[in-house]
DNA sequence: TATGAATACCTTGTATCGCAAGGTACCCGA
DNA sequence: TCGGGTACCTTGCGATACAAGGTATTCATA
């Protein structure tokens, strides 16, 4: 069905923003992110998330630290860097702009 | 700069929705769409728009009719089909959902 | 000790899509 | 008749989401 595809497209571009919003509140590791985005009705796959986190890390917007887990292997907790906070502030502005655009087109 | 890229990504998925929103109000031809989206702060290139319109046409969400122009060659005016209106209603819902998701993540 | 399940990290291949650049066709005035 | 403006479309490229598959660590249990 076409609508599913378009809907998926709409969410696509928002992923990076949503992940950074999440990390602004607290450091998270991958499964944290998947679960918490899911609770907010945003689906993200493992194969999507890991490359995305690596890219944000490479661009200096995220850092990480290893933390031991009580169960299973250690976890990579990602955190926003100062550059990340700055980029996120710009994305906040972009989000406002998109909301305004849609609002105009709906009126 | 990375933020520009991400910002572009955010707009990407919204394009199809914005174009359909525009066509809900009135039939438009390509340059109409480019100009009116631009007025609403949404940039779209020719090379993006034409394939997108063709795809929506192929999927039965848009139709078109040729209209003579007072200046230059005739224009292809696109209109929403009944299926298009239905799909657009679903996209309205998706848009609401995305807004809610971001709202949750910002809180 | 061995082994299997659970958890966590990551990579590869494919499909989709926006964008830059280039191409064709039509109209009209000089 | 020819050049500029307008309009439609295609091709090649890069970015990215997703599905599928792979590796490593931990722990309970046989």
Describe the protein's architecture and organization.
The structure is a homodimer of 107-residue chains. Helix content of chain A is 65%, strand content 11%. Chain A has 107 residues and is mainly alpha-helical. The first copy, chain A, has a two-stranded antiparallel sheet. In chain A, strand 1 (62-67) and strand 2 (75-80) form a beta hairpin. Chain A starts with a helix and ends with a helix. Chain A binds chain B through residues 2-3, 6-7, 9-14, 16-18, 21-22, 37, 40-42, 59, 61, 87, 90-91, 94-95, 97-102, 104-106, and chain B through 2-3, 6-7, 9-14, 16-18, 21-22, 37, 40-42, 59, 61, 87, 90-91, 94-95, 97-102, 104-106. Chain B binds a DNA duplex (30 and 30 nucleotides) through helix 1 and helix 4.
Strand order of the largest sheet of chain A: 1-2
Helix content of chain A: 55-70%
Question: Total number of helical segments of chain A?
Answer: 5
Oligomeric composition of the shown chains: homodimer
Structural class of chain A: mainly alpha
| Strand segment tally of chain A | 2
Alpha-carbon distance between the two ends of chain A:
28 Å
Concise structural overview:
The first copy, chain A, has 107 residues and is mostly helical.
Comma- or semicolon-separated keywords:
two-stranded antiparallel sheet; DNA-binding; mainly alpha; homodimer; 65% helix; globular; 107 residues
């Amino acid at each position: 069905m076409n609508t599913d595809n378009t809907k998926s497209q709409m969410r696509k571009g928002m992923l990076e923003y949503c992940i950074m919003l999440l990390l602004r509140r607290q450091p998270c590791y991958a499964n944290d992110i998947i679960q918490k985005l899911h609770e907010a009705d945003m689906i993200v796959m493992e194969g999507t998330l890991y490359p995305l986190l690596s890219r944000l890390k490479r661009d200096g917007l995220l850092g990480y630290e290893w933390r031991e887990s009580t169960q299973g292997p250690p976890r990579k907790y990602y955190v926003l860097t100062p550059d990340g906070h700055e980029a996120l502030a710009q994305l906040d502005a972009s989000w406002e702009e998109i909301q305004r655009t849609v609002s105009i087109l709906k009126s």
